[in-house]
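Chapter summary example.
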Amino acid sequence: MGIRNFAIIGLVCIYLALSFNALFLQNFTIFLIFSSLLFLATFLIIKEEIKEKDMEENFCKFFRDFYDNVSAGMDLATALKKCKYGNYGYLTKYVRELANAVEWGVPLPKALSNFLKQLRGKFIKKIGNLIIEISYFGGNVIDALRTIDKSLIDLELIKKEKHSRLSLYAWVIIAIYLIFLGIIYVIVSYFPLFFGSVSTYILYFRFMLIFEAFLCGLVMGKVIEESYFRGLKYTSILLFLSSMFIQLWLTI
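The structure predicted for these 252 residues follows.
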């Protein structure tokens, strides 16, 4: 089991434990223990996310080096072997394994297929599959690779512009969530003066906070970064805020 899957499973278990404690137990010791584990698991998730982003960015660099080699007159296999000595961050190990496989006589399409199986990300797999198709069918290879290179440049610009515009919404959603917590605090603190005890509907508040933490976090990841996996860090932040709020102000 990879670190990514281990972190996801661990984080889901921590989410369930924190949610159960927040909804029914309100035990401060349990809250502290699982909050600490939450930060550790979230750190692993962020580390994997950084690795994933680094590989996507360096895959573009790898492809451009590959394209430059082909433009210089090399065939696809030789161009690929030339990339063996490049520095591509987390992707370097996989590129060298790919180049070594081609040097040992593994057919280029098969070597590329094995290379893609080790990597994550739809973006990398789409570009990789296009290179495989080019190696299979031939034709005007340089023009085909030039088209892909131009598309990569356009995609990078679009992704950067989209991220710069939407990243602000993450803070907006978190701010709205904090306002929501403030409203509940006012209700819990002052409504008893007019309506008596709030214990009858305090459980509903807990469910609302936990449910919204899960939903908002995952939606933020999907909308802002196009990945529910990348939304886990937002879920962790909101769930921690919810659990702490419940622990401090929504205990009966």
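To summarize the output: The chain has a mean pLDDT of 85.
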